């Protein structure tokens, strides 16, 4: 199954309890350069809360991808993006300890399990 990188992904509502460990699912495997732990990545992404299914952030909504060093991103991205290849789309499910920490941590998403769909557009 391939995806159209010009179309914002949709995330189906998850079923069952939120996972306690990082879940990585390749929706489309890319054929470009491979992201490494020290890479700077250019990505389009969509993020929703696991429990509510509500979108909390999406580069798509701003109309442009983000470009960041992986080391500056939440741990679930640091662990879930390396090995991904440019042109790929990957779904990551991050438990709180790999996202914004336990409830009461001061971030609006603290204590929440998060789902991201990430399109890898480039690495450097």
Automatic annotation (TrEMBL):
It comes from Frigoribacterium faeni. PANTHER family: 39 KDA FK506-BINDING NUCLEAR PROTEIN, FKBP-TYPE PEPTIDYL-PROLYL CIS-TRANS ISOMERASE FKPA. InterPro entries: PPIase_dom_sf, PPIase_FKBP_dom. It catalyses: [protein]-peptidylproline (omega=180) = [protein]-peptidylproline (omega=0). Residues 1-21 are annotated as: Disordered. The keyword Isomerase applies. Belongs to the FKBP-type PPIase family. This is Peptidyl-prolyl cis-trans isomerase. Keywords: Isomerase, Rotamase. Residues 1-11 have a biased composition (Basic and acidic residues). GO terms for molecular function: peptidyl-prolyl cis-trans isomerase activity. Its EC number is 5.2.1.8. The keyword Isomerase applies. Residues 38-124 form the PPIase FKBP-type domain.
């Amino acid at each position: 199954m391939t995806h159209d990188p010009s179309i914002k992904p949709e995330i189906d509502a998850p079923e069952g309890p939120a996972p306690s460990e990082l879940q990585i699912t390749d929706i489309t495997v890319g054929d470009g350069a491979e992201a490494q732990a020290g890479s700077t990545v250019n990505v389009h992404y969509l993020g929703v809360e696991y429990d509510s299914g509500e979108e909390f952030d999406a580069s798509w909504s701003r109309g442009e991808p983000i470009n960041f060093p992986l080391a500056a991103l939440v741990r679930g991205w640091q662990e879930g993006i390396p090995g991904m290849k440019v042109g790929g789309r990957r779904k990551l499910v991050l438990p709180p300890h790999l996202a914004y920490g336990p409830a009461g941590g001061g971030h609006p998403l603290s204590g929440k399990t998060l789902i991201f769909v990430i399109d890898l557009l480039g690495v450097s």
